[in-house]
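Structure ticket #2291
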Amino acid sequence: MQICPRFEKALELLGKRWISLILFCLMSGPRRFSEIEANVANLSGKVLADRLKELEAEGLVARDVYPETPVRIEYSLTDKGKALAPIFGEVAKWSSAWIRLDPQAE
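Resolution: structure written out below.
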């Protein structure tokens, strides 16, 4: 069986380090850069900026600039990004049932 190129591209994108965690963080609503950085452990600002640009280019994330002093920038999911919610929900259910963490890490 040949794997569909679209499916392969989707898994490549979602499997890229930090991408899924950033998207999951945005599932609950718009976030500022610093909020995303604080919610995703061990994610550097440079990598976050790169991943957000990539997600914008893919049409999954929107960057909204508010002309305030200081300027406020928020990131939110587009409809395309929000369409991933059922997938993340299923992954959350699956991980709760099947993934066990080191008891010292919990």
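Closing remark: The first strand starts at residue 31 and ends at 32.
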